[in-house]
Specification:
The complex is a heterodimer of chains A (112) and B (116). By secondary structure, chain A is mainly β. Chain A has no helices and 11 strands. By secondary structure, chain B is mainly beta. The chains are: A mainly beta (112), B mainly beta (116).
Chain lengths: 112, 116
């Protein structure tokens, strides 16, 4: 099956800890994205990458970091500097930047 | 503020009725628009897209209409079914400030509830 996988589905962390969310795709897409979704809100772009070893900040990058060492993988680290990390995180990929994006199932992160 | 918005945050319809979900966009440079469906606790799923050189595009039970004059996008769902209950997002492809790379900007979404 082709698609995007995110793991884990639910993640719990204590405040002050860094946590890394996994995103893998086997669609051979060059572009990958991380979004954050809060209850009743739209998607806000955290980081995106158009090609391996390159990524750009989105609208709300503070407190997050990413890497893109492989085409298939785009992990997101939520650092302790992120003031309100509890949210639903969505990873997406697309053949071309800003065209049809395919989304993963999401990871719900809860920090207490 | 957001460049993409929705007129109605919630919509409740009877099963079998047609549904219309609206979206306003503000950037006249946007040349591509997408509608997504998101069920509770899941990632968004692509429904249909439309390019700015078109006014209308039809899919299976869905139609997207684009009115560039008033910067308005709508999604019509025919014979709405309980399985259509979800949040529907529109997204526009627009260049970010000061840059040449386009990105998708998403609206907040409309919650569609289909009553049996």
């Amino acid at each position: 099956d082709g698609g995007i996988t995110q793991s884990p589905k639910y993640l719990f962390r204590k405040e002050g800890q860094n946590v890394t969310l996994s995103c893998e795709q086997n669609l051979n897409h060059d572009a990958m994205y991380w979004y954050r979704q809060d209850p009743g809100q739209g998607l806000r772009l955290i980081y995106y990458s158009q090609i391996v070893n390159d990524f750009q900040k989105g609208d709300i990058a503070e407190g997050y970091s990413v890497s893109r060492e492989k085409k298939e993988s785009f992990p997101l680290t939520v650092t302790s500097a992120q003031k309100n990390p509890t949210a639903f995180y969505l990873c997406a990929s697309s053949i071309y930047p800003a065209y049809e994006q395919y989304f993963g199932p999401g990871t719900r992160l809860t920090v207490t | 503020g957001e460049s993409v918005g929705l007129h109605l945050p919630t919509l409740s319809v009877q099963e079998g009725d047609n549904s219309i979900i609206n979206c306003a966009y503000s950037n006249s440079a946007s040349d591509y628009f997408i509608w997504y469906k998101q069920e509770s606790g899941k990632g968004p799923q692509f429904i249909i897209d439309i390019r700015s050189n078109m006014d209308k595009r039809q899919g299976q039970r869905v139609t997207v209409l684009l009115n560039k004059t008033v910067k308005h996008l709508s999604l019509q769902i025919a014979a709405t079914q309980p399985g259509d209950s979800a949040v529907y997002f529109c997204a526009e492809n627009t260049p970010p400030d000061g840059g040449s790379n386009y990105k998708l900007t998403f609206g907040k979404g409309t919650l569609l509830t289909v009553n049996p």
